[in-house]
Amino acid sequence: MKNAIPKSTSGLLGASAEMIGGATQHGAAIGLVRNTAVHLTTDRTALVTKRDAYEAARTVLTDNKDALQAATDAGHAFITQTRDLLKPHLGSRYSSAWDVTGLIRSLQVSSIPMKQLPVLEAMESFLTDNPNRENAELNVTAVRAGELATTVTAAHNTVNAQKTQVKTAHNVRIAAAKVLMKRLADLVAELKQAMPALDERWLAFGLKMPGTKERPATPTNIIAVLIGANAVSVKWSAAARAEYYRVWKRVVGLDDVLIAVGSPADLDIILEGLPSNSTVEIAVSAMNNGGESALSVLATIQTL
Asked: Which residues have CB under 8 Å from 195's CB, separation 6+?
């Protein structure tokens, strides 16, 4: 049975915790040298630290994006209000007269920060040159336009800077994950050299015993034939990796669940002593030292 090393961060942290437990309990007796509980813990702690730093950076980025959205919303509201106040002066439809306000080719107000910025800067200049067009009561002033331009710029730059931080933290986390992944693979390799393939101590590491096989496939083509008033011949096709089989039966109305009635190595069995005039359900599962397959499709037969 192959022991696959997880690739996800959560999978690596879960698997490494189990392996640390096994190494702590059995490492000295097994003779672990290169991949001890101390080594495993060091690499796992590094990944936890890098994961937490990455998640913290993502949280900061989310907060920064919220701040940028708030600044953009405020900028949109200011530009819209200023435009509406200027319509009696510059016209209700776009003309080149509006270009001085930053609204060029359209009076539509953008919700994109860097498209708002030149409009806010132009409106700051326009209101500075035309103070009679300001409205202090509504806070439509050159000062306010400048403040919003500064806020939008700062918020936009902060988001971009934090995106770089998140990318860096992501790469650092990936690097730490690769280190831990290699450590776990090296531990499995060291255990293979130090322990028999069917040593139960593999289980203490959260690992499968390499000597066990993959569970067998589910048997198919179950055929049940009545060969007497109270006897049934059951046959099935061979299941991949099966070493032997387990046959199950349930007498409808008598048994609550399927009951194991035999474990043949061959591909057939005869069930005798069944109750008369009964419906009998029969299923087969395959077995090996890796476990048991799922039950086959039920075969149903009526006794006499």
From this structure: 30, 201, 202
Other Cβ atoms closer than 10 A to 189: 13
Reduced to 3 states (helix: H, G, I; strand: E, B; else coil), residue 122 is helix
| Kind plus residue range of the DSSP H or E element containing 230 | none
Report how far apart, in Å, the C-alpha atoms of 259 and of each of 40, 106, 152, 230 are. 46, 80, 72, 17
| Band of pLDDT at residue 98, cut at 50, 70 and 90 | very high
Q: How far apart are CA 269 and CA 132, in angstroms?
A: 103
Q: Which of 116, 138, 114, 118 is nearest to 126 (CA)?
A: 118
Per-residue model confidence (pLDDT) at position 213 = 81
The sign of the CA dihedral 67, 68, 73, 77 is positive
Per-residue confidence (pLDDT) for residue 232, from 0 to 100: 96
Is-contact 37 18, C-beta < 8 A? no
Query: What digits encode the pLDDT tens for the residues 43-88?
Result: 999 999 999 999 999 999 999 999 999 999 999 999 999 999 999 9
Fold of 223-302: Immunoglobulin-like (2.60.40)
pLDDT digits (tens, 9 = 90+) for 127-147: 999 999 999 999 999 999 999
- Global confidence as pTM: 0.73
| pLDDT value of position 236 | 97
| Residue 304, token pair as written in the block | 């006499």
Q: Do residues 152 and 120 make contact, with C-beta atoms less than 8 angstroms apart?
A: yes
Q: What letter represents residue 292's amino acid? A: E
Rounded alpha-carbon distances, angstroms, from residue 125 to 90, 118, 141, 200: 16, 11, 10, 79
Q: List the beta strands (DSSP E) in the chain.
A: 223-228, 231-235, 244-251, 259-262, 268-271, 279-288, 291-292, 299-302
Q: Using the structure block, give the residue that is written with the tokens 């730490």.
A: 176
Any idea where the domains of the chain sit in the sequence?
A: 1-212, 223-302
